[in-house]
Design goal:
The structure holds two protein chains of two kinds. Chain A has 13 helices and no strands. By secondary structure, chain A is mainly alpha-helical. In chain A, α2 runs parallel beside α10. In chain B, 72% of the residues lie in helices and 4% in strands. The chains are: A mainly alpha, B mainly alpha. The interface between A and B is large, with 112 and 82 residues.
Chain lengths: 229, 105
């Protein structure tokens, strides 16, 4: 870490650190809305903070509390959240080829695993040299973790002080999901999966227990099977 | 405010453990093995399928019934704002304002 700060006068390195921290700050705002929405859905401030500290993968946290807030079973909330967390497994695989330069010892690698999420993967794999990859991974990981948890705490405290219905905060979950969904609609397959997933969910809402339609929607990923490349 | 289920803590702990294991398995255990292309592609489509389902559930359902209420106004505003690449906080504030206004009328 000390070496990272000492060499901040290198333009390459500074560019990486600045973009990592900017991203962290932007994500902090996302965390604010998670904090507000999570306490509105019935979690305590402590439970909301525990989700951000220990689960630390945004879409899964949002999804779990959205199902709980709607009155779904904990099993259904858990199932949907784990499905959304599954992509971190793929990120781990993608990062593992540079794992040697990012974290040498096993304990350090086990620590690094907690920070394997969308943003750290994107920024780390976007760098050309192993050294910059390491800097990008750790500054994004630690910076984002800090902002994510600060944002969650502030949001949760604010959210428990106001009436969520009156301020229309029940729309905070879907609004955040729409923002997260947008980049996935850029590809044709993404649009097909989103359309089919949405349809499966709407069709099954009235006769399946709350939260289960979200699991049914996951079958839409099978549009990826017959695509040829 | 909604009442949280009594064993929400158990779900949180199970989710934290599962999320960590998924991250750790790829990075530490399996190393740089390649997944079959099809598997990779399907895993990558999970967010598209689930996020879309979550949006519709949170906008058009109440428990097990399909409803159209003040949330639709917020939904419409959020779609337009997100489409125009407004930052998240703007999208959420605009959507919440629209929903609150319709509810107040």
């Amino acid at each position: 870490m000390k070496r990272i700060f000492a060499s901040l006068n290198e333009p390459e390195l500074r560019r990486v650190v600045v973009s990592s921290l900017t991203l962290g700050a932007a994500v902090g705002v996302f965390a604010l809305s998670f904090g507000v929405a999570s306490v509105s859905a019935g979690a305590s401030v402590w439970q909301t903070c525990a989700l951000s500290l220990f689960v630390f993968t945004g879409a899964s946290q949002f999804s779990a509390m959205s199902v709980v807030g709607a009155g779904g079973s904990l099993a259904a909330a858990f199932g949907g959240a784990v499905l959304l967390a599954a992509r971190n497994f793929v990120y781990g695989l993608a990062l593992s080829s540079s794992a040697n330069s990012m974290a040498k010892s096993l304990p350090r690698r086990l620590f690094a695993a907690h920070f394997v999420i969308d943003e750290t993967t994107a920024l780390a794999l976007g760098q050309e040299s192993p050294r910059l990859r390491k800097v990008a991974f750790w500054t994004t990981g630690i910076g984002l973790f800090t902002f994510w948890n600060l944002g969650t705490l502030i949001g949760a405290l604010a959210g428990s002080a106001i009436d969520p219905q009156k301020f229309g905060l029940d729309i905070a979950f879907p609004a955040a999901f729409i923002v997260m969904l947008m980049p996935h609609l850029r590809s044709k397959l993404g649009r097909q999966a989103a359309t089919l997933g949405g349809a499966l969910c709407l069709i099954s809402i009235s006769f399946l227990p709350v939260g289960v339609p979200i699991l049914i929607a996951a079958m839409a990923v099978l549009v990826g099977v017959r695509s040829d490349d | 405010m909604t009442e949280a289920p009594a064993n929400l803590w158990i779900m949180i702990i199970a989710l934290a453990a599962s999320a960590y294991l998924l991250k750790m398995f790829g990075l530490v255990v399996l190393g740089s093995r390649q997944l079959p292309k099809v598997f990779d592609r399907c895993l990558g489509l999970i967010p598209a399928a689930l996020l879309s389902a979550l949006v519709l559930k949170d906008t058009f359902s109440l428990g097990q019934s399909l409803v159209v209420d003040a949330r639709v106004a917020g939904f419409a505003v959020a779609v337009v704002a997100a489409w125009r690449r407004a930052p998240l906080i703007v999208v959420v504030v605009l959507a919440a304002t629209a929903t609150a206004l319709v509810r107040a009328i």
